Amino acid sequence: MATLTCKNYFNGRWETGVTTGISTNPSDLDDVVAEYARADKNQTDNAIRAAADASSTWAQSTPQRRFDALDQIGSELIARKDELGELLAREEGKTLAEAVGETVRAGNIFKFFAGEALRQGGERLASVRAGVDVEITREPVGVVGIIAPWNFPLAIPAWKIAPALAFGNSVVFKPAELVPACGWALAEIISRATLPAGVFNLVMGSGRQVGQALVDSPLVNAISFTGSVGTGRQILKATAERGAKVQLEMGGKNPLVVLADADLELAVECTLNGAFYSTGQRCTASSRIIVDAGIHDRFVARLRERTAALKVGHALQRDTQIGPVVDDHQLQQNLSYLEIARDEGAEHLVGGDTLQRQTRGHFMSPALFLAQSHHRVAREEIFGPVACVIRADGYEHALSLANDTPFGLCAGICTTSLKYATHFKRNAQVGMTMVNLPTAGVDHHVPFGGRKESSHGSREQGRYAAEFYTTVKTAYTLA
């Protein structure tokens, strides 16, 4: 396959970087997906200044102009879903079906926010003082710095960039260095959407250079970040010092509760999908499976059988169910957790082997353990195809175990009881709950986000995105 040449995009022009990086296919390490321009701090500052200069023009643009631009972007993403899905699968490693689905989702996100550009409203209220009118409106925050992760290289940038543009902000976008070609492909589509120069900018490069410049710049009014807890905390401290707005999504250790009355096959299917699809590389993955003692042994036996049968292989092969781990660093981290789990006394049931396929790649069979709630494999986010089952003595104990975590992104329950499902939805200490569904899998038009250490700031996606990408103004007029 061809190697792409990917440049940065500043102020309406494609620019080379100060150095060049490469991205490789985790399914085939001999396949170089892209050579990409790596920017430094100075180039990032130039992109930020371009965004600041263009900010007022775009802020004053009409809702129809914003709709037209975002709708065009969304339409092209959907029209090119097969081509872009293949690129995504090749660069990030998720299966082709998942990659095509993500591309369509990204397109739908842009189309949703195209509509939001037209639906922006406000309020007009009577004052407590006679003869005074009160209007409440929303205005763009200004320049938004977007720092995106590698695991959803089209969908997550889409759900940050689309609302930023829809509500009249200018954007400087930094994709993860593992997926520059996906970031460039999205930027190339956006570049043809008749936006004024400087409204959208792509800056590829390291977190130390590009990311830090975005976080530190006084011209960047808001930062939206998805990534690790450690990096998120650093961004929070830095932005707090200069008073910038910040939105952080930082991961999870999500539980799936399986009660004794659950449909066994449905519960196993929810577990496989939530824990192992996308190679477990999702912040919404359910890596803690909390199972009622009444169904525990039957569930574990069936889950072990189904886990062992999952087909791991090249992401572009049609029959592959689990693609490769994204890179060697992540693979070694996954393998280290297997040793930690064994050393702490967790029972290794199946998987966790590195695999050889026709091409050199980072292939690993999904791993399953029986664990206790204090084991590190049950408490720390691994971000790979590693899950553990924890026995619970009834619903109340299962709920307590589900909430016993510093994270709070999402939680699921498999049950046929309306009573328990309703109680769980109200009492799980998370931002999102799922009943008889995998924890991984969310709609594009509703809020996304969590509690505790999983998230900070207002929600992403849906109409709630306006809370972050706009600021509220109250205006008084003497009638």
Helix and strand arrangement:
Layout: E1 4-6, E2 8-10, E3 13-15, E4 19-25, E5 28-38, H1 41-59, H2 63-79, H3 81-92, H4 96-119, E6 123-126, E7 132-140, E8 143-147, H5 155-166, E9 170-174, H6 180-191, E10 200-202, H7 207-216, E11 222-226, H8 229-242, E12 245-249, E13 254-258, H9 264-276, E14 286-292, H10 293-309, H11 328-343, E15 347-350, E16 354-355, E17 363-364, E18 367-370, E19 386-392, H12 395-403, E20 407-408, E21 410-414, H13 418-427, E22 432-435, E23 451-452, E24 455-456, H14 466-469, E25 470-478
Parallel strand pairs: 1-5, 8-9, 8-11, 9-10, 11-12, 13-14, 13-21, 14-19, 18-19, 21-22
Antiparallel strand pairs: 2-3, 4-5, 6-7, 7-25, 12-24, 15-18, 16-17, 20-23
Helix pairs in contact: 1-7, 2-4, 3-4, 4-5, 9-10
Describe the structure.
It is built from 14 helices and 25 strands. With about 475 residues, the protein is of the alpha/beta class. The chain has two domains: about 5-250 and about 455-479, Aldehyde Dehydrogenase, Chain A, domain 1; about 255-435, Aldehyde Dehydrogenase, Chain A, domain 2, CATH 3.40.309. The strands form seven sheets. The chain has a seven-stranded mixed beta sheet, with helices on both faces. Strand 11, helix 8 (about 230-240) and strand 12 (about 245-250) form a beta-alpha-beta unit. The longest helix has 24 residues, at about 95-120. It starts with a strand and ends with a strand.
